[in-house]
Amino acid sequence: MKGILLVNLGSPDSPTAKDVKPYLDEFLMDERVIDVNRILRNILVRGIILQTRPKKSAKAYAKIWWDEGSPLIVLSERFAQKLRQHTPMPVALGMRYGTMTIKNALQELKDQGVDEVLLVPLYPHYAMSSYETVVVKTMEEQQKHFPEMKLTTLPAFYKNPDYIKALSESIEEGLKDFDYDHILFSYHGIPERHIRKSDPTKFHCKIDGSCCGINSVAHNTCYRHQVYDTTEMVKAYLGLPEEKTSTSFQSRLAGDPWLKPYTDYEFERLAKEGKKRLAVITPAFVSDCLETLEEIAMEGKEQFEEAGGEAYMHIPCLNDNEVWVAVMAKWVNEWEASGVLPV
Ligand SMILES: C=CC1=C(C)c2cc3[nH]c(cc4nc(cc5[nH]c(cc1n2)c(C)c5CCC(=O)O)C(CCC(=O)O)=C4C)c(C)c3C=C
Ligand SMILES: [Fe+2]
Ligand SMILES: [Fe+2]
């Protein structure tokens, strides 16, 4: 029997430093997230970052935590629950980091008689620190614990017309009562080095957009290329004027150069340029989470208003939006019926 495994990033069990620490330890010790050799990663993560970050992150989590738990987990569960109503197949939900493990989710599917799994990384874009690490971890767990299971993976859906339609319509809905001067597409950042590492040709990606018009196999794994494609396709779908939109990258850690422009600098630039009413969308995330609810909806608002902005709105992620659930149901049900995956 076929079944569906949804995988998102994960969250700590509670917004306390005690629970945030082991979660961040697992997250940041992932070689695809902090991609230096193991010894250096140990020093960097355990010797430096984890000395102070858990307390700071726990405070941020406490600001967005819901009675039911972490927004990312609750919203992913709601999405899974709605998807179950649209497909006859068993649907399980696992997280790349934390206690809701991929192994347990695979076990849940096995217990329901599933021997053929479609893995759905809940990320629209390919990055080694998001999509790729989910695929690698799931393959490891499958080979180790469920060798009899067959595993297929949904491709990154950043330019799939059904996804673009669902995302665009959700943005349109979010904007219906907000008269905006500008829409900022803010994506999670990654170190520039990750772009070069993920380029199979080793020479295509120039990290300035000059390469993106040249057809290349590199685009299949280029996060920067893919997010700009999403922005352009949404702009085209909604007929948004060029001068009223821009793209930026949020959530960087100190150290190496990350993809630019940085979202926090953009808040200041846009406000100073007289864009008084700003809408922000965050399409790197399918579910609202710490990075959208705290960094963008709370901190971002403050930064924009301090720089002279007057009105600010964060448009929610797709979460358990009905159109989005129907799109995912269409993709998984087509896979069940004919083995065909969306492109
Ligand atoms: C080297 C560090 C990081 C990389 C690279 C990175 C890439 C990346 N992350 C997401 C999605 C999410 N990240 C979230 C939180 C988060 N991310 C990092 C670091 C990197 N992410 C940290 C340290 C944290 C924890 C919070 C903090 O201390 O600031 C979340 C939110 C999780 C939640 O519980 O709500 C998401 C989602 C993507 C898509 C991505 C690469 C494209
Ligand atoms: Fe992150
Ligand atoms: Fe390119």
TrEMBL record:
It is found in: Cytoplasm. It catalyses: Fe-coproporphyrin III + 2 H(+) = coproporphyrin III + Fe(2+); heme b + 2 H(+) = protoporphyrin IX + Fe(2+). One of its GO terms (biological process) is heme biosynthetic process. SUPFAM superfamilies: Chelatase. Pfam families: Ferrochelatase. Its main location: cytoplasm. It is an enzyme of class 4 (lyase). GO terms for cellular component: cytoplasm. Pathway: Porphyrin-containing compound metabolism; protoheme biosynthesis; protoheme from protoporphyrin-IX: step 1/1. Belongs to the ferrochelatase family. This is Ferrochelatase. The gene is hemH.
